[in-house]
Amino acid sequence: DAGRRVLARKGASAATVMEIVREAGVSQPSFYNHFASLDAFIEAIAADFFEADIAHKVGVFSRTADPAEAIAMNAIHTLSVARKDPAVAWVMVRQGSLQEVGHKRAGDALVRMIAAGLRKDRFQVGDPGVAAAAIRGAACPLLQDMLLGRAPPDVERQFAVLVLQMLGLSHREAAAVATRVAQSAAALPPQPVSEFTRRKKS
Hints:
about 200 residues; mainly alpha; about 75% helix
């Protein structure tokens, strides 16, 4: 899709409608027949991705008995978007609040995972919402570093370790859980292709 290529190349803040229509080989009126503005186009990409992503994660997490593994999986998958779908990753950086659109539709899965860990005495934090906000705040600059080629190769695993330590695990246990999840991530079901992407490719 032309719009996604431009976003991946330029970033959501630097992309323009003119660049998108030029890449797609269509006119500006054609673009505005489908989207009211560039922001509306970007929101469509983000909302559709997050809806598919949340549904995917809920299914995976429902089969994960240990809340620490579920959180590590969430951290790794969040940053992996920069490698798998740079256009969406730039949207996430631009928003500065990860999965904001998706949460409006489906509630906050990360808060629920942290709360589940508290009930099982797996985590040691106060309010799950505050912890979730801190995790997302830390993820945004890391996503940007990955998109700009400045992050270390194992940044996803390192981030998962730090998140688990923030939730109360020791460094040794957090590293063991994060490494185990990172090594098994390739065996997880692939994230679904969003309906928006299928429509634009058809």
